[in-house]
Amino acid sequence: MIDLHYFPSPNTWKISIMLEECALPYQVKIVDIMQNDQFAPEFLAISPNNRVPAIVDHDAPEGSRSVFESGAILLYLAEKTGLFLAADGPERTQAMEWLFWQVSALGPMAGQAHHFR
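RESULT FIELD:
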């Protein structure tokens, strides 16, 4: 089972969509950023940058594993399931290029446009 630490946002939506597409069992754990839940010590242990999304994979081979940042979570889930990411070669490189472009360019600019409009 995976815990998805969540508050409604485009970044958390990406992770919930990936979990659904990978057919992984998960439960949503609300982090109410309007109430500053992201600064709670329990959440900071999972996401030291105090942001959602974050996951805890209780079925990782070494035991529970936490992952924060949407791009890292998407990569982790793709590698865990073998879905949506080639194991190697040009297809993997191209998928990584688009992932990093989305998290570093499109996502932040869209977020700023939404905020300032």
